[in-house]
Amino acid sequence: MKLRREMPGRWILLLLAGAGCTLGNQCTQAKDAPVDLEAARTRMVKTQLAGPGRRIEDDRVLNVMEEVPRHEFVPEAYRDKAYVDSPLPIGHGQTISQPYVVAFMTEALKPKATDKVLEIGTGSGYQAAVLSKLVKDVYTIEIVDPLAKRAKETLERLHYDNVHVRAGDGYKGWPEAAPFDAVIVTCAPDHVPQPLVDQLAEGGRMIIPVGREHGNQELYLLEKREGKVERRAVLPVRFVPMTGEARGKGKE
Question: Is residue 155 situated within a structural domain?
Fold first, then answer.
């Protein structure tokens, strides 16, 4: 793989759920008046995603971010904070990514209406819901069984009917549904899993955080051309680590 590096002007830090209530006031249930969630979602898009200094330019992504109800994908205790630009705990040591990062990763894939997308790390199902509005089908894998079950129930309840959820280890991908036009990984291995590269279609794109659990991580964008993969770093991040088989593999 040829490596190129692109450093953005804005650093994004994804906090681990284990640090959950080190999120301070943003992680505490509000005691004051109820939040107008619809207005908060519109404000999130205008100020956090499309405001001055932001990098989200695809109107399709902005429209979907304003449409998908993030509050439905977070625990009840944090719903009043659903549209703050912050990760939030969803249980089992996992988080829902901050809205900016969800939008950034979605835009980086350049999704098309005919695309079939693989997601590794379903979490609450929010990222899958966002993608489902932009592509034909989303196949998503979550290693934590209770999270996979909850995400499936939420997505079905909200009628995201083109999202297919599987509980299992995402390191090996979903071979029987491959190839995929795009792959998105929302947990960090210390190397790019080769099975995911193999399942990426010619001309496809993958966005994945790579790095050690307690060290530096980079969000990489990979593109597959004529059987070869070129990757470039696009954002410094910190995601929860990829578990399962990824833990037993060395660096590529």
Answer: yes
- Tell which residue, 76, 240, 75, has the closest CA to residue 170: 240
Query: What are residue 229's DSSP bridge partners?
Result: 224
**Total structural domains within the chain:** 1
Read off the tokens for 156: 């079905």
Quick one: tokens of 112? 């098309």
- CA torsion sign, 106 to 185 to 26 to 153? positive
Task: Note whether residue 223 is domain-resident.
Answer: yes
| Cα torsion angle, 195, 228, 100, 72, sign | negative
CATH of the domain at 102: 3.40.50.150
Question: Could you tell me if residue 187 is inside a domain?
Answer: yes
This prediction has a pTM of 0.84
CA atoms of 5 and 24, how far apart (whole Å): 33
CB contact at 8 A, 177 and 151: no
pLDDT at 32: 55
Residues annotated as catalytic (active site), given as ranges: 97
Angle between helices 59-67 and 99-108 (to 10 degrees): 140
Task: Return the SS3 of 57.
Answer: coil
Residue identified by tokens 């990514």 is: 97
Helix (H, G, I), strand (E, B) or coil at 71: helix
With respect to residue 153, please indicate whether it lies within any of the assigned structural domains: yes
Dihedral sign, Cα of residue 57, residue 96, residue 180, residue 6: positive
Kindly report, residue by residue over 225-238, the tens digit of the pLDDT. Answer: 988 899 999 999 88
In the chain, the percentage of residues whose pLDDT exceeds 70 is 84
Q: Mean of the pLDDT values across residues 24-53? A: 75
